[in-house]
Model the fold of this input.
Amino acid sequence: MTGIQAFLEVLHRAGVAHIFGNPGTTELPLNDALGRDPRFRYILGLHEIPVMAAADGFAQATGRVAVVNLHTACGLGNAMGMLYNARVAGTPLVVTAGQQDARLRFDEPVLATPLVEMAQPLVKWSVQVDRVEDVPNATRRAIQIALTPPTGPVFLALPLDVQRAEANNLDLSAPWIPDRRVRPPVDALQHAADILTRSSNPVILAGSRVTESGGITELVALAESLGAPVFTESGAASGRLPFPTDHPLLRGPLPLWSPDVRAALAAFDVAFAVGLNVLKLYIHQEPARPLPEHLKLVHLDSSAAEIGKNFPVEVGLIGDPKAGLAELAALLPPRADAAERIAKWSATRAEEQASLRAKIDSLRDVRPMASLVMMDALASALPPDVAVVQESPTSHHNLFERLGALKDPTGWFAHRAWALGWGAGCALGVKLAWPQRPVLALLGDGAALYGIQALWTAARERIPVVFIVCNNGRYRILEHCGDVMNLPGLASAPGLSLHDPAVDFVALARSLGVDAHRISEPGKLADRVRAAFAGGKPVLFDVPLSP
Done:
């Protein structure tokens, strides 16, 4: 058996059936082996950005490891932005790249570079496998490390000579994946329960790792027992939704800026944080501390490094969010004012939704379409089981969450690290993972252009994603940040506009094999999106928006 055959055998025994890649000469033994191995589906991308992003989406949706194969130094270099995204999101990826033959490396041949050192800052484990006998164990170890909390990407450099070398009697057993449902200590749970019980006005801060642990139901039960409103991760760090969008206790994402976070949390005396980084800020503003000084913090997380990282905690609970939430809820006595608190937050949310709908109605006749109106039209077209991939920093307004339009919160995938180009590829991976669920990719025009090659893969693999390009002709997020940083000169500064020439997304999509249309009316947009979900092929809608 060759080294690359051993690699594939261990992957198969680990349940891997997809490999995402863009090959070069140092990866040809893999492609040669895959040509004779029907157990795997090779998803080809024209650039490493959509390749990595698709693997990221697949791994996030399945909760299993995804495998990426890149072309040595140049391929890994092109993929680094998406590898950064995966590291921040904690996505379990096994990223591989071919390395030059050992018999050539001293001569500094074409494309030879220290790949391990290149990948090292962005992965949990980075290693070059220099003996064919070590390939099975390296593959097993890579999968195990990627899936052990805190989860994240790993990197294997596979030299060309090791891929082709042969060996007998290799141990090809499957990886051993640990049970990740680690319980926090009982004493710490009781301490946390005591603090929450004595709290006069508790609040919950919840993040992506709740969803990834399967703990949404447990979080709902805890929130209802406390009557505590739930804030999710801010737009600068949001990923997976940890709470149903139609629940009266959902307050939506935390604000982006420190003063606004303080204002949002000022009335509460205890914050229970679970499955999120406390807190990932974007632009420095005073006061520098976003948490009010009087706010006591209790933090449950599978990532021990996040507990107490930036702010001291009253209690730190290291453990699986789903398991910890269930055990904590069991220790809480019934709260006498829980129903009253839920009713209060329900009324508050109803008022906010009425105000939001009035604002949307006031903008219905604006052309080009206002982004709020576009989002409302899309909300009306969402099936109950839809999955949404969001990479539109300024056009989405968190409207699906604010209107309660997402009936299944597990279907929300948003950017956590902001290396652009992720959204289109991620949507492909989500659809491959969940072929029975409709998938909508909500893309800013600037972000879409970083990973537009994903459309070709959608056409080639017949992956029926509905792509929406929110086209305001600018990097609007930069203008917004310029306002926050008090930089008035940006209004006429270079580098922020995508006009002159305008990008023809319809022609671009069609050139890559994807049907595309420019839609300027909200009613027509809703109708076309409904039809596209049932159409069985990828479709792109370019929606011009008012700036």
Notes: The chain has three domains: 3-164, 186-344, 363-544.
